């Protein structure tokens, strides 16, 4: 052991005697380890975002939304069936569709219909603009939403369309910044709704909201769906204004006029009684079959007109996750190449070092050093360089991950596994690529080495 420690001291002395060369030798390892840690951190961040999105869209959910008129016209141009369907009348997406799905399909656990209107909101002199959503209690279960304070809608409020509501955390902060909103009233257009609950804060990314049709839960007011249909507007009801070709978005209440605009892109979707149906399936394995059954059922109910589209967020997110996993594997592989290049750099520099120190090797072997001692010395030098480069690379990788998050907003999560793997690889690279120069040094003829100039 004492002999080994002495050889290690000689190797350490040789490394510090050529600091600049040792640092240049370690650069490949430093950047390789840093790149691996940073790339794996980006991959971990992407995976966490996908998992968070899955939680937001709910488990085993199928989303049914009305198809815009422009998409239907494009479909009608593409095929003959589309032209024939365009001539038929469809009642649009309705509460009856939601009830039929719940009653007929056995694989369905919950069904959440939703109708959304944009409206000015006023309470205690504070005004803002937001969305008023008509929902059922299943909505909160499907999307894993829970109340921070207050109560959920009861059976009487749901059945008779009582003027009650639950507010999102964002609207609560705007309308009731200093006081509890429970029991107070919010004026939505011309209708007053009493607050009975407040949702817990739940953030939704803009990309998820756009791609999956998921709303920003924090900035909405939720009322029983019957309340919205009775007190606000039921688009399935034919009015005099509609017959005369007037605006379909103006409703009269108690002698006063009140305007509401649908959350849809335009009034061309006003034939749909509701804006969305979210179906929760009992088992993940049944999602595809259930979506196919829903497609056929709604097509029959809508007289053969496919004026709706079905999205399966979990499958889309899993596909996105698979794509990101492949991308991360490619990035990790590219970053790992840097470690191999760094190892080749160590081998080249150590081979050059063997040539420069031929006389030193001869003197050591002449004074009693064995070939194993020479191998151990040069192998120790290569390992020290790679390990020190690995340590510096770890800190650089942590800094890179932080910089990426600060500058680009991309979530990065550095895992212990990535640090251990990259450091272990760097040490292994030093040993593997340092062995050849060490063996070359040990094979030198002591007599020829002593004569070397």
Descriptive notes:
With 453 residues, the chain is an alpha+beta fold. Helix 1 packs across helix 15, helix 3 crosses helix 4 (80-86) and helix 13 runs antiparallel to helix 15. The protein has helices at residues 2-17, 19-57, 69-78, 80-86, 95-104, 137-142, 155-160, 169-175, 206-212, 225-232, 240-243, 287-301, 313-356, 358-366, 371-408, 416-442, 446-451, and strands at 61-66, 108-123, 126-135, 147-150, 164-167, 185-188, 191-199, 220-224, 250-253, 256-259, 261-262, 276-281, 308-311. The protein has a 6-stranded mixed beta barrel. A two-stranded antiparallel sheet has the order 9-10. Residues 246-268 have low confidence and may be disordered. Helix content is 57%, strand content 17%.
Low-confidence stretches: 246-268
The H/E string reads HHEHHHEEHEHEHEEHEHHEEEEHEHHHHH
Mean pLDDT, to the nearest integer, reads 78
Strand content: 15-25%
Rg estimate, integer Å = 34 Å
Strand order of the largest sheet: 2-3-8-5-7-6
Which overall shape is indicated by the principal axes computed on the Cα atoms?
A: elongated
Q: How many strands, what sense, and barrel or not for the largest sheet? A: 6 strands, mixed, barrel
- Measured between the Cα atoms of the first and last residue, the distance is 34 Å
Q: What percent of the residues sit in helical stretches (DSSP H or I)? A: 55-70%
Enumerate how many helices there are, as a single number: 17
DSSP strand tally: 13
Structural class determined from secondary elements: alpha+beta
